[in-house]
Amino acid sequence: MSGAGSPASVAAEKTPPCKRCGNRDWAIEQRHKARLRWLFEVIFAAPDVWIFQSESAGWPGKEYELWTCRSCGRRARVA
Questions:
Q1: Tens digit of each residue's pLDDT (9 = 90 or more) over 30-46
Q2: How far is CA 75 from CA 2, 41, 45, 50, in A?
Q3: pLDDT of 27 higher than 70
Q4: What are the CA-CA distances from residue 46 to residues 7, 39, 42, 61, 78 (Å)?
Q5: Which of 6, 19, 29, 44 has the highest CB neighbour number within 10 Å of its CB?
Q6: Which domains does the chain have, with CATH numbers?
Q7: Measured between alpha carbons, how far is 63 from 59 in angstroms, rounded to an integer?
Q8: Bridge partner list, 22
């Protein structure tokens, strides 16, 4: 993955197919989450992180990935 704002390409074998065209070629861009969205995710994750520390997924990240199909232009957001 690359820094915020610059799309990167991912190996086709490891990516899911596009639901519209079936292609596996994606441009991936990382963007910052909105402050309110990130705050709600932290509040929602707090009990899980504090109670089940070893089994928890941890605190939510401040960025999300925006996947764009290089063939048809369909977008998918990944947390």
A1: 999 999 999 999 999 99
A2: 18, 22, 26, 34
A3: yes
A4: 32, 11, 6, 13, 21
A5: 29
A6: 8-78 (2.20.25)
A7: 12
A8: none
